[in-house]
Amino acid sequence: MHTKATFAQSAAKQYIVHLSILLTIGLAVGIYLIGTTIVIAKDGVGFIEYAVDLEAAPAQAIRAKAQHPGYPFLILMAHRIVQAVNNGSLLASWVHSAQAAALVFRLLAVGVIYLLGRVLVGPGHSFLATLILILFPLPAEYGSDALSDWPALFFLSAGLLLAMRGAAEGKWWMFGLAGLLAGAGYLVRPECVQLIVYAFSWLILQLFWSKRGMTRGRLALALVVLLVGFCAAAVPYMRFKGAVFPKKDLVQFASGVRACDGCQAQLQSSSRSVCAAGVTPAGVAEGARELFAGVGETVMWFYMPPLIIGVCSSLKRRTWLHPQQFFIIVLIALNVGLLLWLNGRYGYMSRRHTLPLVAFCTLYVPAGLQIMASWLCGRIGLSTGRTFASDGCNRLLFFILLVVGICVCTPKLLRPLHHDKVFLRATARWLAANTDIADVIAVPDVRIGFYSQRKVILCDGDETPEEARYVVDVPKRGRSVLAEKEGLLAEKTIIGDDGMPKATVYSRQP
Question: What is the pTM assigned to this prediction?
Answer without folding.
Answer: 0.91
